[in-house]
Amino acid sequence: MESRHETSSRKRRYCTICQQDFSDRYFRRHTCEEKAENISQPTQSKCDEPILLPASEPEMENFENQMEESDMEEEFLMGHLSSSSSDSTSEEEVLDTELFNEFYLDNIEHRENEMLGVKNGRSSRSSIVVANWCAEDGKIADFDDMELDSRPGQILKIYLHNVIINGKSSVHVIAKVQWYGKLEEGMKFYYGKPVTVWRNNIFEQKGPASFIPVQRIRCKAVYAFDIVCGERNVIVIVPRERFLS
Question: Which domain of life is it from (predicted)?
Fold first, then answer.
């Protein structure tokens, strides 16, 4: 019996998110995104913990190269920090920037009594939005063109992070949005303005416009799926404007 117990204990894993111990079989089934490695081996005591030393120059260069190859989300967020901070300081000043806190939100209050949600969250019905932001090829529209053409999209994630710049706290809320692809110009206003028709299975390519400050979102939208002029996989968008003109 002891040998069987020892064998089974080696197959148990611990989840750092749930802070629970699972068998190897059920560990793969539970829903946490981050999963710890098998901790069948005894944990180290504090006296056995390695001593952390400053990184050498080759290690720092290797780390910087890895950061350059990181995904677009990190690149955009850090680029957003540097651009927003450089506007308020001169080139001679050295910024002491620190990412103090960052986490994802399932929903957020956009304006008074108006909630924004995410695609896979509990408020997914509030994840379809309209904004004057995205141009062609995933680029951010020019300021002069932002009021000319609006586009619907679906919020995938909402980032809230607190940045300390020279000892001053600055909180930003940014939404990651996938923008719906365009149909032929004659089909866009098939049902008449302000109702628009877009592709449901084809999205604008990823780019800087994939991230938008929540205050730049114009409004939420009501949507329905339909077949228009024989074109399948289309989504019909009706903006939910806060005020009627």
Answer: Eukaryota
Cα–Cα distance measured from residue 72 to residue 77, given in angstroms and rounded to the nearest whole number: 9
pTM of the predicted model as reported, rounded to 2 decimal places: 0.60
Q: Is the pLDDT assigned to residue 135 strictly greater than 80? A: yes
User: Per-residue pLDDT averaged across 211-226, rounded?
Assistant: 93
- Residue pair 130/218 in contact (Cβ under 8 Å)? The answer is yes
The structure tokens 């950061």 sit at 67
- Residues of the domain holding 34: 12-42
